[in-house]
Request: fold
Amino acid sequence: MDRENNKIKQAMQMSRVNMPFDDFEQRVMRQISDLEKEKAKALSDRKYAIVFFLLGSIFGIMLNNYFINRIQILTTEVAYRNYALIFSQIIFVLLICFFCLQLWKLIKIQKEKSYQ
Reply:
C-alpha cells in the first residue's frame, strides 16, 4: 500500500506546474482587466463615431444647401452654375461614402474583436 501511495505522490509531483515568474498570475489578471477596459472604451468610441457621423452628415447637408443657394445667387451663367452645383454635390457624396466606409470598418473590427 505504501508503494502505491509513493507512486501516486511521484505522479502528482510530475504533474505539478511551476509558474515561470512569481508575478505571472498578477500580470495575466492585469492583462485581462486591461482587455476588458479596452472593450468598454471601444464600445464608447463606436457610439461617439456614429453620433458624430450623423451630426457631420446633417451639418454637411446644410452647408451644401447653403453653398448651392449662394452659387445660384452669385453665378449668372447657367453652365458655370450647373458645374459648380454638380461639383459640390459630388464632393459631398464622396465624403459621405468615405465616412460610411470608415464607420463600417470600425464596426467590423469591433465585431471581430468581440468574437475573439
